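To: structure desk
From: M.T.
Subject: fold request, one chain
Message: Could you run this one when you get a chance? Sequence is below, nothing fancy, just the single chain.
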Amino acid sequence: MAETRAWKLLLPRQLRHLPADLAGVIGVVILTNLAALLPVVSDTPVRIVAGLVFVLFIPGYAFIAALFPEAGSGPTADEENGTNPQADGIDGIERTALSFGLSIALVPLVGLVLNFTPWGIRLLPILVSLSGLTLVLTAVAAVRRWALPADERFRVPYRTWLSAGRDELFSPASRTDAVLNVLLVLSILLAAASVGYAITVPKDGERFSEFYLLTEDEDGELVADGYPTEFRQGEGRSLIVGIGNQEHERTEYTVVAELQRVERVGNETQVRERSELRRFQPTLGHNETWQRQHEVTPGMTGDRLRLQYLLYRGSPPATVDQSTAYREVHLWVNVTG
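Reply: Done. Structure tokens follow.
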């Protein structure tokens, strides 16, 4: 006990007297920032758990703590008569429910404001904004709570809860209570294990790869529009080739770009002449995106030539055509001499 008090004396007075629930809010803010930014922790379930608590509960709790620094209780006869000194406060259930509701309201508002700033809706701006807002509200809540008499301040009776829980678990009033306590503990452990398993071993969704072509507009933005269709032999025009890996594993790709002279025979399109323009061989992890500029310089001339990009997972086979490709995109172009 003496050692515990000794290290507390090293803290500033405001922190030493900070209410336990507000100290917990600051702790969750720090934990979430570390879990989201530290490379060692950012890929673990800790980031998901801390992030959910931070987004869905903490900002609202800090806001409610700032609005209602006084203790509260459920409706009583004294409250109806106006003689209850805690009538202006709210009880724990109301405080918890409002915390969830206000968090769900505050977080989108922060995102909306960020959307109109140069930083945009990204991880770091969201972390900084929500953390800053929560810490400011926590400071206001602490100041307002300190301004009240000690017996009117809201406090979380965690020592009472722990004592009551310990007595209920280890000193049950009857054998029936003991059996119910064991069942309750087993149910909580089972629920926690189920949630932990769902977080740590997520079910794989559909496996696929995105494959697309883009162009650059006048503002330098990449768009799926305005593709070049008129070329001159030997003169290059740019396209952007893109791949998105949603295969749930690291994947090696090969992209083959060809210019083809094709002929329609019945219901089939047959290639009469082909010219390979370039190959790309990127390797992507799951959920990674790859984009490269391709300067298309046609060597053959003609109308309605097919500029085709073929995507393969791994190395392509000896026969490179649409029937062997994993994905395919193409443009119809005209090339003059």
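Reply (cont.): Residues 72 and 88 are 7 Å apart (CA to CA). Let me know if you need anything else for the meeting.
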